[in-house]
TrEMBL record:
<feature type="transmembrane region" description="Helical">
    <location>
        <begin position="12"/>
        <end position="32"/>
    </location>
</feature>
<keyword id="KW-1133">Transmembrane helix</keyword>
<dbReference type="GO" id="GO:0005886">
    <property type="term" value="C:plasma membrane"/>
</dbReference>
<dbReference type="GO" id="GO:0090313">
    <property type="term" value="P:regulation of protein targeting to membrane"/>
</dbReference>
<dbReference type="InterPro" id="IPR052894">
    <property type="entry name" value="AsmA-related"/>
</dbReference>
<dbReference type="Pfam" id="PF04357">
    <property type="entry name" value="TamB"/>
</dbReference>
<dbReference type="Pfam" id="PF05359">
    <property type="entry name" value="DUF748"/>
</dbReference>
<keyword id="KW-0472">Membrane</keyword>
<keyword id="KW-0812">Transmembrane</keyword>
<feature type="domain" description="Translocation and assembly module TamB C-terminal">
    <location>
        <begin position="1043"/>
        <end position="1489"/>
    </location>
</feature>
<dbReference type="InterPro" id="IPR008023">
    <property type="entry name" value="DUF748"/>
</dbReference>
<protein>
    <submittedName>
        <fullName>Translocation/assembly module TamB</fullName>
    </submittedName>
</protein>
<dbReference type="GO" id="GO:0009306">
    <property type="term" value="P:protein secretion"/>
</dbReference>
<dbReference type="InterPro" id="IPR007452">
    <property type="entry name" value="TamB_C"/>
</dbReference>
Length: 1530
């Protein structure tokens, strides 16, 4: 175009010159056309000769010297080729104006060119245009005769045309040096032709080498490419240095250019080397460039379908330019804003770029057509619309980029320096940062990976592994993995000589890890060595488990291989520790090893641990096998969860692939799984040796087998013994055909609340479109059984389940499933047809359809159903006959229910509740279920429930009222078994039920009248009458007065607390006053039993299944505690006396059978913490042998703590100090001696009730003769013999120490001081010293005293008359039997006979003791002593004092015996007269008081009234429990 304008201007000058010549000729020729034509032709010929360029004009017409018309104008170049050809030129001028202003300017009013045709051609020899020579010839011709000085100013006369038109012009350009390109989609710069050139020019100026004009409506059409200039308006300037197009508005093809473009060059000839010689400067605004137009000049652009909207400043040459303040819009929303600099165009290779972007945005879809061969477009599109800000400097091989981007994936920034040369020497350094970057979206793993905050540096050399050397240091501030954000991850690594060494450390609040590894990539098979420690991993927070589990382990990984399928080696977890914090469970795993072995084409994957071993082997690839198994299982699901159309569509879309044949044999065997399962879930148990094995074979048919055997499986309350599962399936890979079979067997079962069952069998066979199944199960030790058989048939729309020969035998009842029963499943719609059970007149049927259609309903019909039929199955005690119907609609949405039922004689266990009936009707207007139910007993309604259920409400869906009308309180008894019993009383009141079904809210109260119940574990009975209040989360009582069987009272506060009737817990506290809290016998509890009256605070709290009872009480009168030790296992031997247990061995880790029975009655167990402050009012008995009466019985004081857990443990702690008591020493009913326990004796417990430590001393006093016993008294005189033959008190002391079950026993024997023996003081001391020094002698004497009631003389036992010894033994046995018989006559009577012998001293030695209690033990009469006063001359002497004996009268003035009076008499031997006794007596009054604590003196204080708010909470001092006091009286 520029060349055309230049040529057009030069040609116009020539034409104008000819016009002036014609004008002169016209003047001379007087305007004769022929003359005008001849003159002009003649002049043209002369000029042609002078110029050297042939010029011809065919016709001239001059009208009155102001209009000139030339036709057939032709100018040829120096090679005689056509250069300019104009059909006609019309010139409108003012001749006078031209003549007058000839020295200043030449002005033409108008010039119109018709059909101008300009041929510009390059002269091959010189490289200049043909037009250049023509203009140079004109310049020579018109040059002045005298050459102008070089420094003389230009004096060019301007040539001006007011306006001009070009009509139907043509412009040709040809460079014969260049090869012609005739591609219609290529604009040939060297050979082109513009046709249909039309336009208007104004203010045309030609002065020297400068041409200026304004062009309007300029149009043209390129002949070859058909590129059309629709309209071009501009203010044009052309000279030898530049060419301007200002005020440009050009519509060219589909493009539009606006504003200005300036071309700078040194000479016009440089336009021929436009890309390298011409500098462009311009400003574009609102311009539009179409790829269809620009593609004519670039084959690369021609492939695009794009329109660029451009604004900006352009400066530079094509091969080195800068587009400043650019604003480039392209594609569907992409925009580049900034400065774009390129150097080296139009070639792409080696182009240097200097790009600065600001607030730019790129839509990845807009880039696809620019680089269609790039494979990462799909990945790039995940970024979405991306905002860019940054710089790029350099070439595509050597560049520095510093940029920030923000996209839908997040923020990404980088500062990178690349020097790309070759694979060996390329270097790179830089830093990359991300913020909130959606890594999972980029990797197509949204469920696995989430946002990434990353900051890292890398520096390296080499692009291929064998040459690469690099260092990396990075910090992952945050990365989301499986919906958890890991933080503070440090990455450090070095790659050198195909060897990588790196460290990874994580310091997250829930994940602390330190790893280091070495990767050897230099060998044909890569090897990986990784070690590290997972210090802490909170698996719940990390999203791996649902329970709070903490993991610690060591990692040791050694693998080799180049792909996942090639990996071999092992990975070990060492010293793994798992802790489940909320359950306080932990697990230690010594070693867990996963290994992979490859031998030829056989691969083995193996898992080894102390808990389980697993192995899979075969000719398979792990990733391929995993994909195949997953796909096969999903295809099995299509049968159950999709219809035939979906299955057909699936297989139609599934590509038919050639299947690689392989086989996997696998097996899993359990070892010691108990610890692992106890940690994972205590509800699960799998016995050792359980095994699962099978085969997966892949060919044209996928073949899968599975066989599992276990001795015992248990989950919660479900248990299966000796069970086996066998599955075999085969399926065509490329079709839907399936064959399968399954067999499940189990010898014994315990399924949830059902009764124990056995012989479970379940079999199924899958044959393409149907599954035949049958099964059976039997109740253990019963004829009850269930048979289930039928068919599952897969239909085009879904599947049908039919039943044949299915029945349930319960005792004498047979329940049959009708053969026409059918269940049809189509999508979410399930239709039941005649499905149910029938037994005689009893019927349970389900019919109808469960679907989304609210018009369809499901109906349950029950007729004459005996609830007792459920008892053999659920091990319940239900009773009653039920009839009812329930219909439910819109089951998946609103679930509208209409129902009615009636249960006649509803009962549980031994209790009958009455007749229960009710109805429920759905109200479509109010969307409510109206409920009305009532319970009647003895023709009286005792309970009524009315109201509505409103399921469509967001809250308060329940609006019910429950009315209790003297309902029997005993109705609670069947549900409190093991906790309380013997319940009686009645309750009445009203309770409102609000809230929702899962969390009802109760408001109201019940008045309990004559309430009575017994707390089973303690056997304590109490009665009460008071109000029970119901609130949102509480069932409470305020200061209920409990009364025991003896009329003693206790005040109880607290209640039952819950959260929406879930998580029930108790919170009661009581203040007891001499309350009978314990009333058990040995049959109730063989650990301890008795009767306890206590005073003090007691609290009951905790969940119902883990109830806690705490007491801090003081014993009162009539408290008797028994601790039986019949289970003792130790034997203590002391020469002649042996203490031997009669009971079996007791294992301290186990409980007795009685314990097991009792504790099994209490669901969940009860924990009791009793702090007993025992006073002398309480009697404690430790029973060693209840058969022989071997018992320690005492009264004393102490503080004992008893911790009792009905599920297992019983501990005692504390010290009991005996103030007075007795120890019944027995031996096979031969010996029965009552030892008096000495004050200060104590028993100390520190945990185990049977592990108490004894420190007990007990004494027994016996009157014996000392004849022959004392040294040198075997032959005394008669007087001395009488003195020694009298009976003197001798005391045997037994000391028990160390363990209660195996005490250490020691003895002592002492002759008590007596004035009558003063003459034998020396012999007494000698006898005592001998006993101390000779333990054998001491044992002999103690044994003799206890067995025969006499001491052995100095001579041996053999010298004693056998008759005397035998007589003493028999007399002792008779004495013991008489004592026991007399004591059994009356429980208030105690009789003791001793001293009975068969010798001459029988009457002298005989002693009688009896005691009788009156007035509830407050008055006691006691007699003791011998009947004879002694002997004289061998004759037994009697007197009134000896016959009357020693009497004691004792009376308690108050109930607890702290104040008492006593009267007594005593017979004392006269020290001066051995044969006489002196009777003395007396009266005493005694006051005793036990002090458990010291109370400091009160300090003066100011009393401030204090009241508790009605809804406040106060603290129970006994157990430090918080108890509500809502509504409690103050």
């Amino acid at each position: 175009m520029l060349k055309f304008l230049k040529a057009f201007g030069n040609g116009l000058i020539v034409v104008i010159i000819f016009a002036l010549l014609a004008l002169g000729i016209a003047t001379i020729a007087l305007q004769l056309p022929s003359v005008q034509t001849w003159a002009v032709q003649t002049a043209a010929g002369n000029i042609s000769q002078k110029l050297g360029y042939p010029i011809t004009i065919q016709k001239v017409n001059i009208k009155w010297f102001d209009v000139v018309s030339l036709e057939g104008i032709s100018v040829k170049d120096s090679s005689q080729a056509q250069m300019i050809d104009v059909g006609r030129i019309d010139v409108n001028l003012d001749i006078n104006n031209i003549i007058d202003n000839a020295s200043r300017q030449i002005y033409l009013d108008e010039v119109n060119l018709f059909q101008p045709n300009v041929h510009l051609a390059v002269v091959p020899e010189t490289g200049s245009l043909n037009m250049d020579g023509f203009i140079a010839s004109i310049n020579r011709l018109t040059a002045p005769a005298v050459p102008k000085p070089a420094n003389a100013p230009e004096n060019n006369i301007p040539f001006i045309i007011g306006k001009s038109k070009i009509i139907d012009g043509t412009f040709h350009y040809n460079d014969p040096r260049k090869k012609r390109d005739r591609n219609p989609r290529t604009f040939d710069y060297s050979h082109f032709e513009l046709n249909k050139l039309n336009g208007e020019l104004k203010n045309f100026l030609l002065q020297g080498d400068t041409i200026v004009f304004s062009a309007r409506n300029l149009k043209a059409l390129d002949r070859q490419t058909k590129l059309e200039i629709h309209n071009l308006d501009t203010r044009f300037l052309f000279c030898q240095k530049k060419m301007e197009l200002k005020e440009l508005e050009a519509n060219i093809g589909n493009s539009f250019l606006k504003d200005e473009i300036i071309f700078y060059y040194n000479r016009s000839g440089e336009l021929g080397d436009f890309n390298h010689k011409v500098r462009m400067k311009g400003h574009l605004t609102g311009s539009r460039i179409s790829s269809k137009d620009l593609g004519l000049f670039s084959s690369y652009v021609d492939r695009l379908n794009e329109t660029w909207h451009v604004s900006g400043d352009f400066n530079g040459k094509v091969d080195d330019f800068m587009l400043s303040d650019a604003d480039l819009h392209f594609g569907k929303g992409s925009r580049i804003v900034g400065d774009l600099g390129f150097k080296g165009l139009p070639e792409i290779e080696g182009v240097k770029m200097n790009i600065r972007l600001s607030l730019s945005k790129i839509n990845p879809l807009d880039l696809v057509q620019y680089y269609p061969e790039w494979k990462e477009h799909q990945t790039l599109q995940k970024f979405g619309l991306t905002l860019l800000d940054g710089t790029f400097k350099g070439t595509l091989d050597d560049f520095v980029i510093n940029a920030n981007s923000s996209s839908s994936l997040g923020k990404l920034s980088g500062d990178l320096d690349f020097h790309i040369t070759d694979a060996r020497t390329t270097t790179y350094t830089g830093e990359v940062k991300t913020a909130g970057f959606e890594l999972g979206t980029l990797l197509d793993q949204k469920e696995t990976w989430q946002e990434l905050d990353f900051e890292g540096k890398v520096a390296g050399k080499g692009l291929e592994l064998q040459f690469a050397s690099a260092d990396m240091n990075a910090l992952v501030r945050r990365v989301g993995f499986r919906n958890y954000d890991y933080t503070n991850i440090r990455l450090d690594g070095n790659l050198q000589n195909q060897y990588f060494n790196g460290q990874v450390s994580v310091k997250d609040s829930n994940f602390i890890v330190n790893l280091e590894g070495e990767f050897d990539l230099s060998k044909p098979r890569n090897s990986f060595d990784l070690q590290g420690v997972v210090e802490r991993a909170n698996l719940k927070e990390l999203g791996f488990v649902k329970e709070p589990v903490t993991l610690r382990t060591q990692l040791n990984v050694n693998l080799s291989g180049n792909t996942v399928d090639e990996l071999t080696g092992d990975a070990k977890l060492l010293d793994t520790y798992l802790l489940m914090t909320n359950q306080e469970r932990n697990l230690v795993i010594d070693t867990l090893v996963f290994s992979s072995i490859q031998q030829l084409d056989k691969r083995t994957l193996q898992l080894e641990s102390e808990f389980v071993s697993a192995k899979a082997e075969g000719n398979f690839l792990p990733t391929e096998a995993w994909k195949d198994i997953s796909r096969v299982l999903e295809e099995y699901k299509l049968y159950f969860f999709e219809n035939e159309a979906n299955r057909t569509e699936y297989y139609a879309r599934k590509p038919i692939e050639s299947v690689k044949r392989y086989q996997i044999d696998y097996e899993v065997e359990s070892r010691n799984l108990s610890r692992f399962l106890a940690f994972l879930s205590p509800d699960i148990y799998v016995s050792r040796g359980a095994k699962a094995e099978g085969t997966f074979k892949m060919d044209n048919t996928a073949f899968l087998t599975f066989n599992a055997i276990s001795d015992t499986l248990r989950y919660g309350t479900n248990q299966f013994v000796k069970s086996e599962v066998d599955v075999t399936t085969s399926k065509f890979v490329n079709s839907a055909e399936v064959l399968a079979s399954i067999l499940v067997t189990s010898d014994q079962q315990q399924i949830s609340v059902l009764v124990p069952t056995e012989k479970l069998e379940l079999e199924g066979t899958w044959d393409v479109d149907h599954i035949d199944f049958n099964g059976a199960i039997h109740q253990a030790k019963s004829t009850n059984l269930a048979n289930l058989a039928g068919e599952i048939r897969f239909l085009p729309a879904g599947l049908d389940i039919g039943f044949t020969n299915s029945r349930l035998n319960l005792l004498d009842e047979t329940w049959n499933v009708p053969s026409e029963s059918l269940i049809s499943i189509v999508g979410k719609s399930v239709t039941f047809s005649n499905v149910g059970f029938v037994s005689g007149k009893q019927r349970i049927f389900l019919s109808g359809t469960a679907s989304d259609d609210p018009e369809k309903s499901l109906t349950l019909d029950v007729k004459n159903f005996r609830l007792g039929s459920l008892n053999p199955v659920f091990n319940t005690q239900l009773a009653g006959i039920m009839d009812g119907t329930a219909r439910i609609r819109d089951i998946y949405n609103s679930a509208m229910l209409d129902a009615g039922f009636n249960i006649e004689s509803l009962g549980y266990g031994q209790y009958e509740f009455g007749n229960l009936s009710g109805t429920s009707d759905w109200d479509p207007v109010t969307s409510e279920l109206q409920i009305d139910a009532q319970l009647s007993k003895n023709a009286r309604r005792v309970f009524n429930l009315t109201g509505a259920y409103r399921p469509k409400l967001a809250a308060n869906t329940l609006n019910l009222k429950a009315i209790f009308n003297h309902i029997d309180f005993k109705s609670l008894e069947p549900f409190t078994e093991g906790l309380v019993s013997d319940i009686s009383g009645s309750a009445q009141g009203t309770v409102l039920i609000k809230g929702i079904v899962n969390a009802p809210v109760l408001e109201g109260s019940l008045m309990v009248e004559n309430g009575r119940m017994k707390f089973d574990y303690l056997q304590s009975v109490f009665t009460f009458s008071d109000k029970i209040n119901f609130t949102e989360s509480e069932i409470t009582a305020s200061n209920i007065l409990l009364t025991d069987e003896d009329g003693n009272t206790a005040t109880v506060r607290g209640g039952v607390y819950h959260d929406g009737f879930k998580y029930f817990s108790l919170g009661f506290s009581a203040d007891l006053q001499n309350f009978k809290i314990l009333n058990t016998t040995f049959q109730d509890n063989d650990t301890f039993y008795g009767t306890a009256y206590v005073t003090g605070p007691v609290s009951v709290f905790g969940p119902i299944d883990k109830l806690n009872i705490e007491a801090n009480v003081t014993s009162n009168k009539n408290t008797r505690i028994y601790i039986p030790l019949d289970g003792a296992t130790e034997v203590a031997t002391q020469d002649y006396i042996q203490f031997v247990s009669k009971m079996p061995v007791r294992d301290s880790t186990s409980m007795s059978a009685a314990d097991s029975v009792f504790r099994g009655q209490v669901s969940g167990g009860i924990k009791m913490d009793f702090n007993f402050n025992l006073t002398p009012d309480a009697t404690c008995e430790i029973i060693f042998d209840r058969q022989t009466g071997d018992i320690i019985r005492g009264n004393g004081s102490g503080r004992l703590n008893l911790n009792i857990d009905t599920e297992g443990d019983f501990t005692m702690a504390g010290t009991y100090e005996i103030e007075k008591g007795e120890y019944n020493f027995t031996l096979q009913n031969v010996i029965n001696k009552k030892f008096s326990i000495k004050p200060g004796s104590r028993i100390v417990w520190s945990g185990d009730p049977y592990g108490a430590q004894l420190d007990v001393k007990a004494g027994y006093t016996q009157l014996v003769s000392l004849v022959g016993v004392l040294p040198n008294t075997g032959s005394v005189n008669t007087t001395g013999n009488d003195v020694l033959s009298r009976r003197y008190p001798v005391e045997v002391t037994i000391g028990l120490s160390e363990g209660l079950m195996s005490p250490s026993i020691h003895y002592d024997l002492k002759i008590l001081d007596n004035p009558s023996l003063s003459a034998y003081r020396g012999q007494l001391e000698a006898f005592q010293n001998k006993l101390k020094s000779d333990e054998q002698e001491l044992s002999r004497q103690v044994s003799s005293l206890l067995v025969v009631n006499q001491l052995l003389p100095e001579s041996s036992l053999a010298t004693i008359g056998g008759q005397s010894f035998l007589g003493s033994s028999i007399s002792e046995l008779v004495s013991n039997q008489i004592s026991r018989w007399a004591s059994g006559i009356n429980e208030n009577l105690e009789v003791g006979v001793s001293g009975l012998s068969l010798d001459q001293n029988a009457l002298t030695n005989l002693q009688l003791r009896f005691s009788y209690r009156f007035l509830n033990d407050r008055f006691r009469v006691t007699r003791d002593g011998r009947f004879a006063s002694g002997t004289q001359a061998g004759t037994t002497q009697y007197d009134a004092a000896s016959l009357l004996g020693e009497w004691t009268l004792e009376y308690w003035l108050n109930r607890n015996g702290s104040v008492r009076v006593k009267a007594y008499n005593r017979n004392i031997q006269n020290p001066f007269s051995l044969n006489n006794t002196v009777t003395t007596g007396g009266v005493s009054m005694q006051f005793t008081h036990s002090f458990n604590r010291f109370t400091p003196m009160p300090k003066p204080e100011v009393k401030i009234p204090y009241t508790i708010a009605p809804d406040s909470v106060r603290q129970d001092t006994s157990g430090k429990k918080l108890l509500t006091t809502k509504g409690a009286p103050r």
